[in-house]
Write a structure and sequence with these properties.
Number of strands: 20
Structural class: alpha/beta
Helix content: 25-40%
Shape: globular
Number of helices: 14
Length: 461
């Protein structure tokens, strides 16, 4: 029995002796059963109408706001998210539910003229059925929400498989959502690869956020079944700093993007590309900014860089920086928990893992570029293309000279981190597969478009 249903254990990254929960994984059959119950509940959820779905999503937003302090504290404890960021995530989570609460009233199609003769042509978007969602631990409330809310608004039911490290957060979110929707409309089943594979094999549409190898496997499995899928995967994001940039402002933005939440964001900055004369001043100011980042207890409101999520993540970061020229950080604080100092390295040899792979920790490489064109080539040289931040006073360069960036999002004079949930989110190359998330794009993903031809009945009808 133990082998068939392994235990899931969630620990506090800042104090590994603090165990939030230990529960058995439900197994593949439980996932398939949950999908079947969700599929049976889906027609009634859709036919309840726009007003009912809108009211339910609005009630979820109310529930999130009412439990905001509790939810923020839970994110601090379970995933080590600094309190200020945890509070901001919870506020964003409520805002996302409220944003999609308006979506059931949006048009779902259009009327078209026939090419010739009488009749009517219509297009109409309809839900797929059961949305299978597989989510990571780093945004334990926001990412499940920006997948589930549009899926539910469009009339789908949802089965969510969260990352094991965020099991407690997902279960608490489920309590709030289930209090606002009918039975089996929203189900959370924790677990690992077994449960995730079962969900992909049973759901009608799949949305995944996580590592690139797993995301590719999800996309392959969904494609083989002929169901829609999207996968948001890794990032190795660059910050380009041109000589005319406000170096102090750029350094502050980049330091926050490297060290915030210990760099555990797909949009974190991993490479800092300094163009021409920007290199020397940026090296000094950015190094100082990283050394000044408050590292410590994530429950302290002043903390910016808390622990990494587990010991393996911290060890991977230490291994990645071993033997490199360190400008800032490169140390492990002498304290309980899985902490690492925000780190900036330079003179990284070509082909080094830091320049090819996502470490998912508070570390970045400083790289020199001869000119903007060279900076673009450096930025595009990696397998990923999620987001690039560009720091310059020249609007022409920002808008036109960097059009060759092979990246899904470009943030000008802003940190690489940050999400505008009412706009499409996604990347290029190995960073993303399938349609975009968030905003109106999400509503399109969770529905399929049908074309109806209405011809007049014949005289004898």
């Amino acid at each position: 029995m133990t082998d068939a249903f392994p235990l899931l254990t969630s620990r506090n990254p800042a104090d590994p002796a603090d165990v939030l929960l230990t529960i058995p994984a439900p197994g593949a059959f439980a996932v398939v059963d949950a999908v079947e119950r969700a599929r049976a509940a889906q027609p009634a959820w859709l036919l309840a109408g726009a007003a009912a779905r809108s009211a339910a999503l609005g009630a979820v937003a109310d529930g999130i706001e009412a439990a905001a302090a509790e939810l923020a504290d839970l994110a601090v404890r379970e995933v080590g998210k600094p309190l200020a960021e945890a509070r901001a995530e919870v506020a964003r989570t409520a805002a996302i539910w409220r944003y999609y609460a308006q979506a059931p009233f949006l048009p779902v199609g259009a009327v078209h003229e026939t090419a010739a003769g009488a009749g009517l042509l219509l297009t109409r978007r309809r839900p797929h059925g059961v949305a299978g969602l597989i989510t990571p631990w780093n945004f334990p409330f926001a990412i499940p929400t920006w997948k589930a809310a549009p899926a539910l608004a469009a009339g789908n039911t949802v089965v969510l498989k969260p990352a094991p490290e965020a099991t407690a957060c997902a279960r608490r979110l489920a309590e709030i959502v289930r209090s606002a929707v009918p039975d089996a409309v929203f189900t959370v089943l924790p677990g690992g690869a077994t449960e995730g594979n079962a969900l992909v094999s049973a759901a009608d549409v799949v949305s995944f956020t996580g590592s690139t190898p797993v995301g590719r496997a999800v996309a392959r499995a969904a494609t083989a079944r002929g169901i829609p899928s999207q996968a948001e995967m890794g990032g190795l994001n660059a910050a380009l700093v041109l000589p005319d940039a406000d170096i102090a402002q750029a350094a502050a933005h980049i330091a926050a993007s490297i060290a915030g939440f210990a760099g555990q964001k797909c949009t974190a900055t991993s490479r800092v590309v300094a163009v021409g004369a920007a290199l020397e001043p940026l090296r000094e100011v950015l190094s100082e900014a990283l050394r000044a980042v408050p590292v410590g207890d994530p429950a302290d409101p002043s903390t910016v860089c808390g622990p990494l999520v587990h010991e393996g993540a911290r060890d991977r970061m230490s291994e990645a920086t071993r033997g490199l020229s360190v400008l800032a950080g490169g140390t492990v604080p002498d304290r309980p928990g899985w902490f690492a100092a925000p780190t900036l390295v330079e003179k990284v040899p070509p082909g080094h893992p830091l320049l090819r792979e996502e470490v998912f920790g508070p570390v970045a490489s400083l790289i020199a570029a001869d000119d903007p064109a060279h900076a673009v080539r450096i930025t595009n040289s990696v397998p990923y293309g999620l987001v690039t931040s560009v720091h310059t006073a020249d609007l022409n360069t920002a808008l036109h000279g960097l059009d060759l960036l092979d990246t899904g999002m470009v943030r000008i004079n802003a940190p690489s981190t940050g999400v505008d949930f009412h706009l499409p989110f996604g990347g290029a190359k190995a960073s993303s597969h399938g349609p975009r998330e968030q905003g109106a794009a999400a509503l399109g993903f969770y529905t399929s478009e049908r074309t109806y031809t209405l011809a007049p009945a014949g005289p004898g009808a």
